[in-house]
Amino acid sequence: MPAGTIVAEGLIKVFRTVARGTGVAGALKSVIRPERVAKVAVDQVSLRVDQGELLALLGPNGAGKSTTIKMLCGILTPTGGRVEVNGITPYQDRIANARQVGAVFGQRSQLWRDLTARQSLEVLRDMHGLRAAEYRDRIREFNRILEIEEFWEGRARQLSLGQRVRCDLAAALLHDPPVVFLDEPTIGMDVVVKEQVREFLRDQVQRRGRTVLLTTHDMTEVAKLAERVALIDHGRLMYDGKTAGLRDLAGVTWEAHVTVETVPAVIDVPGMRLTRADGTRLSFAPAPGAGEDLTPRHAVRRLIEHLPVTDIRVEEPDLEDVVRQAFRAGR
Amino acid sequence: MVPQASPPNEWPLTRLRSSLLPWRGMRVTLITELTQPVRYVTQLTMVVTQLALTYWLWRALYAGVRMSAGLDVTQATSYALLGVLYLQFRSVDRWSNGDTMVQLMFEGTIAYWFIRPVSPRRWYLIRMCGDLAYGAVWALVAYLACRAAGAIAGPPSLAAGGAALLTLALGLVITYYLQVVVDLMCFWSTVNDSAVVAVQFASSLLSGAFAPLWFFPGWFQRANEFLPFQSTLNVPLSLYVGRLPVSALPGQLAVQAAWCASLALFTWWLWRRAAARVTVLGG
Amino acid sequence: MTPMPATSAERWLRRFAREWRTALRITAISLRARTQYRGDFIAALAMGLAWQTSIFVFATVILTRFPGLGGWTSGGVLLIVAIRMLSHGGMVLVFNSLIMIPYIVQQGALDGYLIRPMPVYRQILLYTFPLNALGDSFSALLLFAFAITRVHLAWTPLMALYLVAAVIGGVLLEAAIQTLVSTLAFRFTIPIAVFMWFDRMIATFGNYPFSILPLAARAFLTYLLPVAFVAYLPAAVLTGRVASTGVPEWLAYASPAVGPLLYILARYAWYRALRHYESVGG
């Protein structure tokens, strides 16, 4: 197996919690005789990420994304199923796994609040047993895109969210791991920093060949970063494939909005079907069975050939709409 | 160039280096405490005040009495002051750093502990050693100052001093294990404030840090002997002031060793259970 | 639709009642929240009991082993202990949440408090149900009752009143100290240990007649860390030992008033510090 491969087969995770009663009677009952409830957080999830790939795990809150990624990191022990990262079972060989894995968990920072970010990185350097030269090189490399040396003399509690996450990224990659897990890393950050982080991740994947598994519920992130996306909802994997293919699943396609001079009596454009008519404004979508050949450009030419067009606009579906449709279709 | 999955050939020296280097993590405590004047200034004020008041109180109590509970004024005063110094070992506040086990569990930062090349148990030990070392420096400096001022008397003999030091070391080990037990309870119960307070109470009152145990009623002392706390401080201090003869050392060492061994076993087992059970909140 | 209240006094009373009802409702919710963590609930109660009882046990032990503390009878010393314990019990019942201020600040919750229609100080006091305090207060009450029976004094209604005033004064004095400590939390990260240290100092040194201590200690505990006004001076007044306190007579008699005065000052300082509060970064 090539280095940096993540394999998960039939992962299951069931949480057992105590049911909370209502009112004083319920509260007392939970003290004396607690009632246990089982919650299936992850149900038969199978994934495979090969070396140098970036997979985005997309899903709404509570879908089981974080649980899945924690099982892949070895932090949670799965109730069922198999997981292997680089040939090592994470929750069994934690120390060995730690050397080949780096992680950033969105709202939680590795940095010590009262230490400067730089001091935190130095402590982590010692923990990983890095040589001074190695460490310097890595920091230089990270600094190129993340620019951490600008603010790393500040105490972690005084850093902004964007600055903290950038330092956390550096901390995660300090030991040059082939596999990286990111659990909602850009949540709550401003657009500029988000782009900086994405550029960094792209660089790491393409130039350094790292394997990245990223969970998110940000559609733009998926659109801009990932060629592959896996959709997870209610603990189940609903889609695993190319981002572009997601649209086919959802049955949502691009639409052409046309404004015509006069509305013809019969509207018949080969390969297109009318989805909406509003006076002189008509909307068309590719007809079912139109085939892959009907690209938006071809469609535009056909529409212009067949209709007295004064204005034409093609709209790509919003990834958010796509995902929403896909979830609905999956249920 | 693709980073390799398997670690490169490691010479024994490199392996030694990579297992010792994480111990530099002990300095997290030092950096935290020394870079904020508020911390050491308040600590200094508190230590000096408490030492002075304790000294005066005990001297005043003994004004009309020569001997009580087998302790004379010098012994009782020394014991009480050393008790105050002992509290310095636990003086490091992890909370503002976000480093208490409860916080790590509650905020989910504990997740990072499980993807580091140092096992959680080892890292916990490293950090605890950092805290204890920092507290030890405070205790030592204060001890020397009190000796110079004549507030604390020296041990009756070199042997007594040595015995005290030995039992203190073992006592600190027991204290460490007890703290581990309390902290690991986080993995099972999401709130363990009361457990923390309970152990604090036990370790300050039942160990003798609050007041010399010899003054407590007989039933209290006898019940206390079944608990490990009195062996952490009362024994070393009693040996130091001469309340316990040096000949009692082997017996006390045996008791301490028994506690160390059983707690070591228990905590080893607890760590395994905790690691297996790891549940991170808020995920 | 209720008719308009006739007088401003009525209006004030209604508002007062409403605010109390809100406070009680919040307290009930906090209690329910705490009881969901079952082990914690039981343990917290037990801890309060254990601590207070131990301190009391030790104080009585000291009495038996060291008779004749500066001419004070054991009854007199027990009175000091009793007043201090009850003051502490009352204090933690109401003001326990002050020690949570560093936590509240760090969580950033203080920002939310600042824009709510309730005074920030009150919101903080209502932050969590004082479970530990219940244990403390309960045992304090028991021990107080026990101690009082051992104090052989000819109680007059005036003395009883003075005793009540002394306890209330003690509550407010301890509260004042903790409030002042908490003002630091707005600017620095204060470990909870600082609050506990003051608590411990008062609990440890507040049990003894200060006449046994040398001048430096006495001055410190009267004018710097005014523990003397919590229990020692009121007890001296009640047992007729004012002359031996070394403190001006009028001050000793006025000791129950020191607490409320200091508390008002502390609250004022607290609100001043709050105004200079800078929100946590992020």
| Quaternary assembly | heterotrimer
By DSSP, the count of extended strands of chain A is 13
Provide the structure class of chain A: alpha/beta
Span between termini of chain C: 47 Å
Total domain units of chain A: 2
Q: Strand order, biggest sheet of chain A?
A: 5-6-7-3-8-9
Number of strands of chain C: 0
Secondary structure: helix percent of chain A? 25-40%
Helix content of chain C: over 70%
The topology string of helices and strands of chain A comes to EHEEHEHEHHHEHEHEEHEEEHEH
Distance between the termini of chain A: 35 Å
CATH architecture of the largest domain in chain A: 3-Layer(aba) Sandwich
Count up the helices of chain C: 13
Rough outline of chain C: globular
Mean pLDDT of chain C: 84
Biggest beta sheet summary of chain C: none
Protein described:
The complex is a heterotrimer of chains A (331), B (283) and C (282). Chain A has 2 domains: 49-71 and 94-248, Rossmann fold; 255-315. Chain A is built from 11 helices and 13 strands. Chain A has helices spanning 23-32, 65-73, 94-100, 117-128, 132-146, 161-173, 191-208, 219-225, 243-250, 296-306, 319-330; strands at residues 6-19, 35-49, 54-58, 80-85, 101-105, 179-183, 211-216, 228-233, 236-242, 255-260, 272-278, 281-286, 309-315. In chain A, α4 packs parallel to α6 (161-173) and α5 runs antiparallel to α6 (161-173). By secondary structure, chain B is mainly α. Chain B has one domain. Chain B is 64% helix and 1% strand. Chain B is built from 12 helices and 2 strands, in the order αααββααααααααα. Chain B starts with 11 loop residues before the first helix and ends in a 6-residue tail after the last helix. Chain C has one domain. Chain C contains 13 helices and no strands. Chain C has helices at 8-35, 38-65, 74-95, 101-107, 109-114, 120-125, 131-150, 157-184, 192-205, 215-224, 232-239, 249-253, 255-275. Chain C is globular. Chains in contact: A-B, A-C, B-C. Chains A and B meet through α2, α3, β5 and α4 of A and α1, α2 and α12 of B.
